Amino acid sequence: MNYVSDAHALLWHLYWPQRLGEAAQQVFSDADSGKATIFIPAVVVAEVIMVVQKGRLPGASLDHLIPYFHSMNESENYPLTSLLPETVIASHGYSIIPDIFDRLIVTEAILKNLPVITRDQNIQESGLVSTIWD
Known about the structure:
Blueprint: E1 2-5, H1 7-15, H2 22-32, E2 37-41, H3 42-53, H4 62-73, E3 80-81, H5 85-90, H6 100-112, E4 116-117, H7 121-126, E5 131-132
Parallel strand pairs: 1-2, 1-4, 2-3, 4-5
C-alpha cells in the first residue's frame, strides 16, 4: 500500500514514535520492513527541517536529520517528492484547509489518490482525503 505523510507524523516516527496512533505506527512499520511506501512531500521535508532548526523537538538535530533525508531519497520505501507547479496550482481548490503546507500535502495525496498519515484535525475533518492515524 502507498501513503503520503504529513510533517508531524514523520517527526514523531523519527523522534517520538509513541505519539503516533496505532494505525500510523503500523504503516511506518510496514514501510520500514518494505511492505509499504510512504511518499514524503517536499513541503514536509521543509517543515521538518524548520521544526528541528527552531529547537521545537528535544533531542532532534540536523546532524541526524539531513543524513536521514539523504537515505530516504535513495530509498524505495520513503521517496521524497518534488513540489510541482501543478500541485501548487491545484491546491487553490482546497482552501477548506487553512495551512498552506497542509493544503499542499493534501493536494499531493489527492493527485496520487493516496491516504494521508496525519493527526491534523483540519485534514481529517475536511473529507478531502482518507486519513490514517488511530
